[in-house]
Write the structure tokens for this entry.
Amino acid sequence: MNHAVTLHRPAAPVAAPTAVRWSVEAVQALLDKPFMELLFEAQTVHRRHFPEGDIELATLLSVKTGGCPENCGYCPQAAEFDTGVKAQKLMEVDEVVRAAQAAKDAGATRFCMGAAWRAPKDRDVEKVAVLVEAVKGLGLQTCATLGMLEPHHAEQLKNAGLDYYNHNLDTAPEYYADVVGTRTYQDRLNTLAHVRAAGISVCCGGIIGMGETPVHRAGLIAQLANMAPYPESVPINSLVRVPGTPLADADPVDPLDFVRVIAVARITMPTARVRLSAGRQQLGDAVQALCFMAGANSIFYGDKLLVTGNPDVEADVQLLRKLGLKARQVAATHGEHA
């Protein structure tokens, strides 16, 4: 399939994938393919780049919950929405280490720490850097999502041993203002640029089911795939409709449409870890199996994603066993795309 055209740009670092330009129209053409044909193409790409077929297990812990000044329409942690989430201060180091050790004992290889800030202050980053060092000391890959970063914050986190920074684009640029009014798309891109410049790997994806049209889904994937390099980790979330948020009454996503997005993410970003993230609880085993067929090879693992539910550990173990899939046993070295 000749959907992509090579960009004429200076040579990328050796570790980066070849930069390609995907138009929104080309991505939309993939999304519109007959379902079985699309899955076959995605599975072919997936097997070429991930012949082991293993599934990365990552655990996410909310280290600072609620009270966020942003107004993201999907988020129960926004201070202006009445969702029953109470603001809590940053967790202590020993609490986080206990959670990280439990995650490692359960098989996770990556531990992500999330804090509900618009943008952390210097003192906040100093405290998170201590958490990163402590989790890194357990032999886990480290990830954090703290909101918007300044360049010196990214450097500080890198020096503490942070492997990945999560900062999702959420949706296509032209639909973004319908979801978030307290920041701009460019704010997101600026933080991602600071993270890249510091030498931290990027975890960046979006949310499906926020009232967006199919072309907005294509626009999101195009934005991600056109990064140079594209993200090493690409979380694809199915909206969890939380009472009290503006998107609580959004129409549910057609499960096969969600699988299509996973497949197109795999085709356009062939060496990324494509992660099934929020919303797995609603998908059920059969749809998750289709997502793995479409190229998903990472899951958030545990009973909670920040403040929303997630399939528990035993359910995930049973699902992987039924599908004959094995968990990734050894965390990749920092900067590796596999």
Remarks:
- The chain is about 35% helix and 15% strand.
